[in-house]
Specification:
The protein has 3 domains: about 120 residues, protoporphyrinogen ix oxidase, domain 3, CATH 1.10.3110.10; about 130 residues, FAD/NAD(P)-binding domain; about 110 residues, Protoporphyrinogen oxidase, mitochondrial, domain 2 (Polyamine Oxidase, Chain A, domain 2, Alpha-Beta Complex), CATH 3.90.660. It is about 40% helix and about 15% strand. The chain has 14 helices and 12 strands. The chain has a 5-stranded antiparallel β-sheet with strand order 8-9-10-7-11. The protein has a 3-stranded antiparallel β-sheet with strand order 1-2-3, with no helix packed on it. Strands 4-12 form a two-stranded parallel sheet. β1 and β2 form a beta hairpin. α3 runs antiparallel to α4 and α6 packs across α7. The N and C termini lie far apart (about 55 Å). The structure holds flavin-adenine dinucleotide. Flavin-adenine dinucleotide (FAD) binds next to β1, β7 and α14. GO terms for molecular function: oxygen-dependent protoporphyrinogen oxidase activity. Its EC number is 1.3.3.4.
């Protein structure tokens, strides 16, 4: 949690002494209040509460890791709502007049522990620690594959007409015919129409141009809204490349990490994030072979690198060879000995429109969308620009939203049977 990060920053060697003192003042004594009536970006919020150095050394790399974003355009309240709330909790403590953040963090931790106790994990789930990274043994596709199978379409098998899944169907238009929605799709077998009582759309914001122009034209805020102050039109999805490479363990620097975790050759941790001030182009590297068993032979380390993002959109214009060269250079700057062999490249995927950015003005965009949605019962425009970008947030939102749709359909059934009677 945030207090864990604070402890790491205050006790470790991440910050200089002046940086530690400034962070300590913000954490334990207080800081300037938030500006009235003005949305803050992440850089402004962190600098005001904990100081410039915490921003540069701790938060800037974290923002690169989660959003591949620019902390000067990302909105604090939209992009990091849970941390932003800690300030409000801090000020809500009567005796904490100057909003010292530590006490808000502590109060939130107590609240969180209570929430988790009240809603414990199901007994059949595998053991896990909250906040730790996780995956499935055979990778994240396990989840969509299981959903597909449950809906009658085993993955890899021939497409079944009886299944409730359709692949490679691209929605182009949603219209209304009386109370019924009519969705038009481009499909491998030509144009197809589906008539339905409700629609939940989870396609990315950038794919929705024109789709809802007749039933919910206000959806255009997602791709048309101009925000001059940050020079954006619509929600920005910058490009990010994910590059998986492997090097022999013995080609890693033979140094013990100062935090006492162990030798770098064993990659004792979950990964590294690169502050932009360090001059490393790669945003961050997941130490995949340390995180997940069975991902590399015992004498190799497997690294998943992310490169690109809001502050480096040029990545989309590089060839695959050029991207690999940049990633290899970053690995050498941070982890490898100078004579390390070239990488074994296991995978490279450029996501041209990767992660939606929750930038300044995002709250207003979502408020406009939510207001408009009220005029179209049975239609929901969701997606990771609304649910939070973290995979668990997307899944949780989907799970909870399914209940809303179910209750809408059930209440409609009651209404229909009344009309019939
Ligand atoms: C490179 C990268 C690394 C990430 N790493 C992490 C991580 O380590 N941890 C984490 O928690 N999160 C991570 N995320 C974020 C997380 O993966 C996403 O936010 C999440 O998977 C989004 O889920 P979604 O269902 O909203 O969107 P998506 O999974 O993007 O699904 C949208 C679907 O809509 C489809 N679609 C597009 N247009 C149309 C159309 N016109 N009609 C019909 N369908 C359409 C697309 O084909 C796609 O299948 C990462 C994201 C990226 C890009």
């Amino acid at each position: 949690g945030p207090n864990g990060v604070m402890k790491f920053a205050l006790l470790g060697e991440l910050l200089s002494w002046p940086g530690k003192i400034r962070a300590g003042i913000g954490a334990f004594l207080g800081h300037a209040p938030p500006p009235e009536g003005k949305e803050e970006n992440i850089r402004e919020w962190i600098t005001r509460t904990l100081g410039e150095e915490v921003f540069l050394r701790c938060v800037d790399p974290f923002v690169s890791g989660v959003y591949a974003g620019n902390p000067e355009t990302l909105s604090m309240i939209s992009a990091l709502p849970k941390i932003n709330r800690i300030e409000r909790i801090s000020y809500s403590l009567d005796w904490n007049k100057f909003g010292a953040i530590f006490y808000g963090g502590l109060a939130r931790q107590v609240e969180l522990t209570k929430e988790r106790k009240a809603d414990p994990p199901e007994p059949e789930w595998v053991e896990f620690e909250y906040g730790n990274p996780g995956s499935f043994r055979k990778g994240l596709s396990t989840l969509p594959n299981a959903i597909s199978e449950a809906l009658g379409q085993p993955v890899g098998g021939p497409e079944k007409d009886s299944s409730k899944i359709r692949l490679s169907w691209k929605v182009t238009k949603v219209e209304k015919d009386g109370d019924i929605y009519v969705a038009t799709f481009d499909t491998p077998n030509g144009e197809q129409r589906v008539r339905t009582k409700s629609v939940v759309c989870t396609a990315p914001a950038h794919a929705l141009r024109g789709v809802f122009s007749s039933v919910l034209p206000q959806t255009s805020v997602l791709f048309d809204k101009v925000r001059k102050d940050i020079n954006r039109v619509g929600i920005y999805h910058p490009p990010v490349a994910a590059v998986t490479v492997a090097y022999p363990k013995k080609s890693f620097k033979d140094v013990d990490l100062p935090n006492g975790f162990g030798n770098l050759q064993d990659l004792p941790g979950f990964g590294s994030l690169n502050p932009r001030t360090e001059g490393v182009r790669t945003l961050g590297t997941l130490w995949s072979s340390s995180l997940f068993p069975g991902r590399a032979p015992p004498d190799y380390n497997l690294l998943l690198n992310y490169i690109g993002g809001s502050r480096d959109p040029e990545i989309a214009n590089l060839s695959e060879e050029e991207i690999i060269t940049e990633v290899d250079k970053g690995c050498r700057q941070v982890l490898l000995k100078p004579d390390a062999p070239p990488p074994k490249v296991i995978g490279l995927k450029l996501w041209p429109t990767a992660i939606p950015q929750y930038e300044m003005g995002h709250t207003e965009i979502l408020a406009e969308l939510e207001e408009a949605e009220k005029t179209a019962p049975g239609l929901w425009i969701c997606g990771n620009y609304r649910t939070g970008v973290a995979f668990p947030d997307c899944v949780t939102y989907g799970y909870e939203h399914a209940k809303i749709v179910q209750s809408y359909l059930e209440s409609n059934k009651v209404a229909e049977s009344r009309v019939a009677a």
